[in-house]
TrEMBL record:
One of its GO terms (biological process) is proteolysis. Keywords: Hydrolase, Membrane, Protease, Transmembrane, Transmembrane helix. Pfam families: NfeD. InterPro entries: NA-bd_OB-fold (IPR012340), NfeD-like_C (IPR002810). This is Serine protease. It comes from Sulfurifustis variabilis. Residues 57-108 form the NfeD-like C-terminal domain. The keyword Membrane applies. The chain crosses the membrane at residues 16-39. The keyword Protease applies. GO terms for molecular function: peptidase activity.
Amino acid sequence: MCHLLLLLPMLGLPVFWLWPIEVAAPVYAVIFAVAVWTYGLALRSAHRPVETGREAILHGRGRVVNAGGRRLTVQLGAELWNAESRDALRAGDEIRVLGVDGLVLNVARLAEARDGSKEVAHGA
């Protein structure tokens, strides 16, 4: 289907064989405009950020719901995930996802910077 959309202007060329130029030119202009509009939609959708999968989770921010040693339960958006951390975390701490290993997230605590922004703290 994608290839047919790319060929749409070429597929419209036979209108010049079938009709006089006064009729074929406006029809072809409409076909060409639809093709350009379709290409614009395709390019816009190709540049949208990832909204699903591993890439969407990576570098996401959340909070610790349940802490029990190195094994944690964290909330990312509306989802609960199992997680591991090198940091000693407590329930309510804000975290950032550093990596994904299967269904277990590798997280680190977010620390307040002096300017008020949040950055990842790498403690032991």
